[in-house]
Amino acid sequence: MNSMNTNYSIRDEIRDFWSERAATFDQSVGHEIFSEAERKGWQRLIRKHLGEGQGRAALDLACGTAVISHLMNDAGFKVTGLDWSDAMLAQARAKAKKRGTDIRFVSGDAENTMEPRDSYDAITNRHLVWTLVDPASAFKEWFSVLKPGGKVLILDGNMGKETWVKGLQKLWTKITGKPPTSHMSPEMMARHQNIRSRVHFAKEMPAEAVVDLLSKAGFTDIVVDRKLADIHWAQARKMPFLRGLERMVQERFAICARKPG
């Protein structure tokens, strides 16, 4: 995966890409939360699969600016947010200080956390799995970091899957010459697509493929939850029409799995 004649890897590219996006990350719907309706939707989903925190230890992987970390904190978990982008962690720490939360933040790789074995009751991540270079190894790492009986909650989707709305967007661009509204510049979009073309889930990422890898890593009681309409509707209402419509029809899901014990 290394670029020719350099040690600059796809993992370095991923880290640097998200570091450059850190300053404006929270400006995008779908990243930060912009309505109480969306917040309640996320809280419902977390409690549905993980229950009340009651001081249990949670590790939020690729925490970014700590949106999910704060939701977990609100649910009563003792949260550690891990990200390998220092720029994202700076934003996360500033947000935690402003909100007066005691979330712990550490720099680290979600595929090799360096966290103690059998130390967390829950692991969460959002929009991380599609970026993994080696998800099979990552899932084994997460399995080892969880306590027996602990759960992982993956919030992601099959974003590479073509939808009829994407087809409509392409037609609109062809007719008008105007590309779809995006929160990224054309240069950043090109970098995003270049990275996506070289990760494990370079094309589609159906939930079934993620479930298969989780099962092989040792997880059991795997549940795929597609009932996220309350979250997506709240997000869509804050987006331009076509982007909001796309959000409503995308194949997004939550996957919860347990470490036996």
3D architecture notes:
It is a single chain. The protein is globular. A 7-stranded mixed β-sheet has the order 3-2-1-4-5-7-6, with helices on both faces. It contains 10 helices and 7 strands. The protein has 261 residues and is an alpha/beta fold. α1 packs antiparallel against α7 and α9 packs antiparallel against α10. α4 links the parallel β2 and β3.
What amount of the residues lies in strands? 15-25%
Mind telling me the C-alpha Rg?
A: 18 Å
Count of helices? 10
Main sheet: which strands, in order across?
A: 3-2-1-4-5-7-6
Defining traits:
alpha/beta; 7-stranded mixed β-sheet
Can you lay out the helices and strands and say which pair or pack?
Blueprint: H1 10-21, H2 36-50, E1 57-61, H3 67-74, E2 78-83, H4 86-99, E3 104-107, E4 120-126, H5 135-145, E5 146-157, H6 164-176, H7 186-196, H8 207-216, E6 220-225, H9 229-236, H10 241-249, E7 252-258
Parallel strand pairs: 1-2, 1-4, 2-3, 4-5
Antiparallel strand pairs: 5-7, 6-7
Concise synopsis of the structure shown:
The protein has about 260 residues and is an alpha/beta fold.
